[in-house]
Structures are given as C-alpha cells and as structure tokens.
Amino acid sequence: MSANVWIFDLDNTLHNADAAIFPHLHVEMTRYIMTELALEEHAACALREHYWHTYGATLKGLMRHHRISPRHFLQQTHQLEQLPAMVITTKRLRHTLQQLSGRKVVFTNGPMSYAKRVLKLLAIDDLFEQVFSVESSGFHPKPAMRGFQHLLGALKVNTGNCILLEDSLPALMTAKRLGMKTIHVSKRLHKPSYVDARISTILDLPTTQIYKTYNNAKCPSSISPRE
Predict the structure, then answer these.
(1) Which of 12, 96, 100, 207 registers the highest number of CB atoms within 10 A of its CB?
(2) Is 96 in the same domain as 166?
C-alpha cells in the first residue's frame, strides 16, 4: 500500500499571513503594477484584486494579459527584508506535524525563496520532503489543474493517497476533482460538498476523522526533534 501524502498550503494554512505578510505583499504588488503598466494606484490595486479573484493569483493575470516576466515580478515583490518580524510562530505546530505518518510536502503559490525562508522561521523546514512552489508548477498557480498535475507528476503518487490542507476553496475544489481528500483550514463555518473536513487551524488536525483514518502509524524516527 502506498504511503499517504499530506500536502500543505503555506500562507494562511501553516502560518498566519494575513496579519503582516499579505498586507505588505499587496502594497508591493500594487506598486509593481503601477510601475510596469503605468497605472494610478487605485487602478493598479483594482487590477491586482481582479486578477487574484479571477485566476487565484495576481501573477497569472499579469502573465496572461500583459506578458509580465514571472521571475521579475516575484523577485521585485517578495524581498520582504523584515520577514523574521512578520512570521507568526505557533508553539505546537512542529509537534503536530511530527505526529503525521507518511510523506509531507508544501504546495504554495509563493516563490521558492520565500517559502523556504518562512518554513525555516517556523522551524519546520526539515519536516517536508519537498517544497513545490509557483516556479515548480510551471507558473500555473493554484487552483489551476495544470499546477496540480505538475505536482502529482513530481511526487509520482496516486491522488487517492493525497490529503490537501488549504485555506483556498477553489484549490480544494480542484483537488477533490482529482480524487484527493480535502481539509479546509478556515474559521468559516460553511463546508462545501467538496470539502471532507474543516478545521480552524492546523493544530486541530488530530481531531478530524481523516487524521484518525490515515494516520495509524507512527512518524519515522529518522526525523529528529528540534525542541
């Protein structure tokens, strides 16, 4: 029997990005759009939000409609010099992840350099076998089916063995269409039919039936605790 694969979104799933990181990124992305497309601030902000709602990522809209270089966009908007002060750590996060049997990967719409910095600041970077970033997806960010297909090809895994933990409902919908188990990390009470479980934070994962069903074995002892 194949090992289960726990696939974690990064921002607003493994940590709270809304508090400081996302507001900063929104400003930087708006400034970038103002510069590259010669727009006033209100128009640039509106375009950023429109592309985010339409494609799940501002970058996708800029690439499709304006031929913006994705690497240049990511480099300019994700410098985040104050990132150590912006990342909110949670004491029990590492312990919760260590209890999971099977493989663990991160699947994020963020750039690789940013994802690795955040995971290291959260002191959980060594718990994941792979970080699958927006570059890894061929710049097909979630919820695009092609991005998921790139991930599955890299992991060489059956979708029935995958559990996606994610704050984005459109991404969870794509995952369910592919045959994955889905866990919505959100404080919202609404649970659509394509969501198998809803938790307020990752720390609540052990309370779910999915955890109880797919986590019978102990974690590999080769992962040493960092405490």
Answers:
(1) 100
(2) yes
